[in-house]
Each structure stands twice: as C-alpha cells, then as structure tokens.
Amino acid sequence: MRTLAELDAAVSGCRACPRLVEWREGVAGTKAAFRGEEYWARPVPGFGPADATLAVVGLAPSAHGANRTGRMFTGDPSGDFLFRVLHEVGLASQPTSTAIGDGLELYGTRLVSPVRCAPPENKPTPAERDTCRAWLAEELTLLRPTLRSIVVLGAFGWQALLPVLAAAGWPVPSPRPAFGHGTVLKLGDLRIFGCYHVSPRNVQTGLLTHTMVADVFRAATSVTASD
C-alpha cells in the first residue's frame, strides 16, 4: 500500500479526464488579479496530517483558488470562510490560507475533494466524479485507522462519498440517506456530518452562516475528542 505522501504525488500527476486537463491548464493566468502568477494547474492533493481523526470532503478545486495555489480551499472566498471557522474551533493554526508555505497547519483534520481538478463552471460531470473515485477511496483507506468523523460540504460531496464508504465496508444504509445540513449518520465507529457548502453564493444569500458551520465542526470534533 502507498503512503499518503505517495498518493498525493500520484494524484498530482493524473491526466485521466481530458476535459478537466484542458480546463485546468487553459484557465491558468486568465484572471487579471492573478495574471503573471505561476499556476499549479494540476490535480490538487488532500491537505492535512496522515493521522487525522476528522476529514472534510467537499466538491472540487476552484479555477483561481486551489488550481492556482495547489492547496485545497486556498486562495478563494470559500477557503477564506472555511479557514476562519477551522481556526475558531481549534482545527487550524491560523485563520487564513493564502499559499503553500504560509505557515498554516491543520490539527487532526484532512481536507479531501471527490474531484481533484478544477472543472468548468465548478461542475464536474458524473463520469469525472466516478473516474476520480479511486483517489478518494484510497485516501480514506489510508486515513481509516484514525478516522472517526467526516464533515461533508454539500450534496455533491455527499453523493460521491457514500458509495465509497459502502464499497469499503462501512455500514451505509440502503437506500442511502439524503443530504441535508445538520444530518448525522452513524456508520459503526464513523460519524458523517452534512453541512451546506461554504460557497460564496450560500454565504451571501444567508443560506449558510459562520455559526452554522462552526456548530457542525464542533459536533464533529466532539466525536473525535471522546473516542
């Protein structure tokens, strides 16, 4: 079995989805605010320690966020919101995430995406999600010895995650439970927490607030703390 570092390296070299390869490379440097910057423009590996007790699973990198910086949820408004929450609840060393090497550390927490490349209009296809599934499955297998809870950001992540957990032997109910903010699933020694995605649209429309996200993470960390 590969180590997590070896998996991250393999993820970063993936070119399995032609549409995503073309988009992630072609969009690099097209936004005026970042013109002249060298973009990562590759699949983005997970971020966080190999012995994490909590995983965060959510959608895909953004074109000028993680696709630019090379780190999950780094360099865009979604990440700005998420890391403020993670810092407040004691899971991040600082409330900002701007670039690899900025000093940020996550405590007991690993950020994972079910699709590793930035997709056009932030909408991966079902086929792209399924092609990327093997990376998610392998990462969760490597995290399994210590993993006790997963916060899922959005319905896309929920729909991608549950089949992976079922295939790995976790007791996922059938039919699979629907996604909802505040939904909690108990799968043996693992807890799954649903949370609306931290997208600018959800935040700006008031569907999601800082307090709502912080409450979900506090519930998830209470599971890991009591293990």
From TrEMBL:
Signal peptide: none annotated. SUPFAM superfamilies: Uracil-DNA glycosylase-like. Keywords: 4Fe-4S, DNA damage, DNA repair, Hydrolase, Iron, Iron-sulfur, Metal-binding. The keyword Iron applies. Residues 45-217 form the Uracil-DNA glycosylase-like domain. Pfam families: UDG. Belongs to the uracil-DNA glycosylase (UDG) superfamily. Type 5 (UDGb) family. This is Type-5 uracil-DNA glycosylase.
